[in-house]
TrEMBL record:
This is Aminopyrimidine aminohydrolase. It catalyses: 4-amino-5-aminomethyl-2-methylpyrimidine + H2O = 4-amino-5-hydroxymethyl-2-methylpyrimidine + NH4(+); thiamine + H2O = 5-(2-hydroxyethyl)-4-methylthiazole + 4-amino-5-hydroxymethyl-2-methylpyrimidine + H(+). Keywords: Hydrolase, Thiamine biosynthesis. Pathway: Cofactor biosynthesis; thiamine diphosphate biosynthesis. InterPro entries: Haem_Oase-like_multi-hlx, Thiaminase-2/PQQC, Thiaminase_II, Thiamine_Salvage_TenA. Residues 11-218 form the Thiaminase-2/PQQC domain. It comes from Marinobacter azerbaijanicus. Catalyzes an amino-pyrimidine hydrolysis reaction at the C5' of the pyrimidine moiety of thiamine compounds, a reaction that is part of a thiamine salvage pathway. The keyword Hydrolase applies.
Length: 222
């Protein structure tokens, strides 16, 4: 039976749920998250996006086909031309200037996850890199959907974090999430059990590092 992305999630269900349903996420959804915690997360997420762009540049280098190369180019372009500009504007709404963002030090959780992704991509192939990125690329879309499934989630003007939820529930992001799952499903279908075990370790490690990223935001740690 061919492997699918869903199998990666099933094999580290405890970690995946701890990531998707983290206290940071819950508090963001019910509007109880401390503004300082969200601001700290926003700053570090800006630094994460820069490294995310580098990961797509690496994906371009690792691409064995023209189709893969185009996908990597589109991902890099989306971050550089759209996401970073939107993030900078969003940070300004929270009182964080572009100058401040440019001079931020990376928190240890940011360093750990982003360098893990880049190191995994450098050591492995394009599939290794995508699996390492998938907790972020897929997870944020699932988080938005999970928040919308909860009765406790506050939407609209009564939640200062509503725009964050709206960003990841958007058709654009949900379509990108589904496209990434489809890409992974097509490639996972051809891997051997031993190769899947390797990929499953990467996915589990990356998911645990995402949990640490939420912890960093919640505790405002450096």
């Amino acid at each position: 039976m061919p492997y699918r992305f869903e199998d990666l999630k099933k094999n580290c269900q405890t970690e995946w749920r701890a990531y998707i349903e983290h206290s940071f996420v819950q508090q963001l959804g019910d509007a109880s998250l401390a503004p300082e915690a969200f601001q700290h997360y926003l700053k570090q997420d800006y630094l994460f996006l820069i490294q995310f762009a580098r990961a797509f540049a690496l994906a371009a280098y690792k691409s064995p086909t023209l189709s893969d190369l185009r996908q990597a180019k589109e991902g890099l372009q989306a971050i550089m031309d759209v996401e970073l500009d939107l993030h900078i504007s969003y940070c300004k709404e929270w009182g964080i200037s572009e100058e401040e963002l440019a001079n931020l030090p990376e928190a240890r959780a940011t360093l750990a996850y982003t360098r893990y992704v880049l190191d995994t991509g450098n050591r492995g192939d394009l599939l290794d890199l995508h699996v390492a990125l998938s907790p972020c690329m897929v997870g944020y879309g699932e988080i938005a959907n999970w928040l919308n499934s909860r009765r406790e989630t506050v939407r609209g003007k009564n939640n200062p974090y509503d725009a964050w939820i709206a960003m990841y529930e958007s058709d654009e992001f949900q379509d990108a999430m589904r496209a990434e799952i489809l890409w992974l499903d097509e490639r996972l279908a051809d891997v051997s059990p031993s190769r899947f075990d390797q990929l499953n370790r990467i996915f589990s490690d990356a998911t645990r590092l995402e949990i640490d990223f939420w912890e960093m935001g919640l505790k405002q740690s450096d």
